[in-house]
Amino acid sequence: MEKRDRERKQARGVLxxxxxxxxxxxxxxxxxGEDDVYVSESxxxxxxxxxGDYIEGVASPKHSNNSRALETVHTINNHTVxxxxxxxxFDQLTPIFPDKKIKMETTKTNYAGRxxxxxxxxGYGQRGMIVAPPKVGKTTLLETFAQSILKNHKDIYLIVxxxxxxxxxxxxxxxxxxxxxxxxxxxxxxxxxxxxxQPSHHKRVAEMALSRAKSLVEFGENxxxxxxxxxxxxxxxxxxxxxxxxxxxxxxxxxxxxxxxRLFGAARNLREGGSLTVxxxxxxxxxxxxxxxxxxEFKGTGNMELYLDKSLSERRIFPAINIQKSSTRHDDLLxxxxxxxxxxxxxxxxxxxxxxxxxxxxxxxxxxTQSNNVLCTALMDSKKKA
Length: 386
Description:
By secondary structure, the chain is an alpha/beta fold. The chain is built from 14 helices and 16 strands. Helix 7 crosses helix 8 and helix 12 packs across helix 14.
């Protein structure tokens, strides 16, 4: 008996429930491996466990080729079993408009964060889309998002979801995020499926990441998913979903969009507490008719859109944000009166049909002020004097 107790080991991991009802505790990137811990169907039902729950407990010793089995559960998502049994499911919670801003401004020279805070703010529970042609600084912008969130909001759990990505880009993003997180690295994870993986792996990783996010939100957490990209995820679904017999332009099956829309549509601010924010990139002008159709299907489904402009990046103007086209619905719930008045003034008097001139003008104004607050005060004061 004493020997068996010594062989028992602490078990932890994210639960993946299989089709037959039992499950396994997965480790990094939710991949299956030799160290996975088996969770019985009876335990899953008794404790109302679900895919995405992070479980800590004690597992039995490993025998021959069999996985260790979970014997005792200590915590579920860092909460007691009793607290977990009393939680409401994600779909039972009440979605409301985002009403608290996620601040992106960090330093004077973080022009991307400052522009977003002024013209296309992001709130807790936002469903945002970054619309980007190739080579306009999309990845750099997503890195800026991650750095700003990790610096300004210690209460947010950040999930970076990279689909069909180059392996070196994954490494660079992981290292950047770990460095930016510092002591808060237990509140961030980079989940990925590189371009050399099967489409089914892209789908599984994305669905696990969504389940993980929902599980955290059920306990009142604020979660942000940065998805790069919803276009490549939709392509993966298009290759593996059962055909409907109907094919849209570009070879896109309507069934292929249900999975990506389920992920994007999960973003919401919740009255009971907690929120899930999803910021996803969508690719345009790639030369693929399918990519254009995917964007058209998602266009208008978000409540925040940020457009990147190739004409700006070709002239080495970064961030290449088309301010005129970018906006957030109900931004009056996120911005105070001074910022709203400043935004209205700039949109009315500074913005034109030429995105190059308008972006250069705004970047110049940002470069001469220490912060958005200073800029707003200066512009409002000058307006009063006029």
